[in-house]
Amino acid sequence: MAFHEVVRSPAYEQVAHQLREAILDGVLGPGDELPAERELCAQFGVSRTTVREALRALQAQGLAVAAGPTAPLRVAAAETLSLGPLRTSLVHLLRLGRVPLDDLVEVRCALEAAAVAGAAARRDPAQLAEARAALDAMRAVGSEHAHDAAPVGGEHTRDAAHARDARIGVAAPARGEHAHAAARDGSAPPGDVVDRFEAADVRFHLALVAASGNEAIQLMMLAVRDSISAHLHDALRALPEPRRAIDRLVRQHEAILAAVEAGDVRDAEHLLRDHVMGFYRGISA
């Protein structure tokens, strides 16, 4: 039988571990003030430097928060626990090539498809009203850009070539010659239009996820979506034929919400998958 050598962990890790266990076990509850540094030094028999390192570790994990630089540390409420560490890890893995973008997109698609299925089954009026308001905001941004943008030559011909069922559709490639041409002829959406459309899009999707009533899906969805948000943002800014693309995205959102409101679980899930995977296929084209 093989045994592993005993390794002593740094003192600050031992202090952080005990404090973390006290928080997770409920000995220290949400909003409770952590003991002062001097008291912790006395109880653990360690230096103030060690205590401070332990407290910084708790803050990095989102378990302890302070209202200001000189304010005392308090136990964070469960609903405010930061997803930062998970999001940061996913971003690093993505940039290092350890986790391909396609894999994270598949995870997002699986999570959100399950969420919209739950939302269609529950049909929570408040959350669906929030999704409807976000959809209205997307429509408003699209209408504004349609009025401001210059006409694009050959538009009717391309419309006929690209016409699709409003319920599905694959986003046009976000990069390449079409994207550069859009930027040259002034048809690319201004930055503020992209920002407002993106904000409404995020609001819509998060409202549907919240409507599922599944807290675990909500938390995981936030972390995964945030980790790939930069790719979404870049793709929206480089949209070729932006008016058509925005109109198509709005129609897809309309179809998804209509299926959810009708309680059609299967259709809602199918439309969501087509929408998400179609858009990211457009990014990588």
From TrEMBL:
<keyword id="KW-0804">Transcription</keyword>
<dbReference type="Pfam" id="PF00392">
    <property type="entry name" value="GntR"/>
</dbReference>
<dbReference type="GO" id="GO:0003700">
    <property type="term" value="F:DNA-binding transcription factor activity"/>
</dbReference>
<dbReference type="Pfam" id="PF07729">
    <property type="entry name" value="FCD"/>
</dbReference>
<keyword id="KW-0238">DNA-binding</keyword>
<protein>
    <submittedName>
        <fullName>Regulatory protein GntR HTH</fullName>
    </submittedName>
</protein>
<dbReference type="InterPro" id="IPR008920">
    <property type="entry name" value="TF_FadR/GntR_C"/>
</dbReference>
<dbReference type="GO" id="GO:0003677">
    <property type="term" value="F:DNA binding"/>
</dbReference>
<dbReference type="InterPro" id="IPR036388">
    <property type="entry name" value="WH-like_DNA-bd_sf"/>
</dbReference>
<dbReference type="InterPro" id="IPR000524">
    <property type="entry name" value="Tscrpt_reg_HTH_GntR"/>
</dbReference>
<dbReference type="InterPro" id="IPR036390">
    <property type="entry name" value="WH_DNA-bd_sf"/>
</dbReference>
<dbReference type="InterPro" id="IPR011711">
    <property type="entry name" value="GntR_C"/>
</dbReference>
<keyword id="KW-0805">Transcription regulation</keyword>
<feature type="domain" description="HTH gntR-type">
    <location>
        <begin position="9"/>
        <end position="78"/>
    </location>
</feature>
